[in-house]
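HUMAN: You are asked to prepare a plain-text protein record giving the amino acid sequence and the backbone structure tokens, both parts labelled.

ASSISTANT:
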Amino acid sequence: MDAASERVSSVRAEITTEKSGERTSVTQSVTDYVRDVRVEMNKVSWPSRVELRESTLVVIVMVFLIAVFIGVVDRALTIAFEALVRIAG
């Protein structure tokens, strides 16, 4: 077993409720689910405000640049297609 698969196999969610063979009520199932979600949310590594701001800025800039690129390519293809239609027509 290599190191990557050992890391993956060692990261497992902890079961906070006992799962017995009997069926539980809907209320109990929802309660268990909410409890499990809270446990997992406490394990999340949340970004700091500065990291969040920087990441958001990167996303906004990249969306703008990609939009400009797509617009330029679209305009160039439109001009080329219109010229082709004029030549052929």
Q: What stands out?
A: The chain has a mean pLDDT of 85. DSSP finds three helices and no strands in the chain. The radius of gyration is 27 Å.
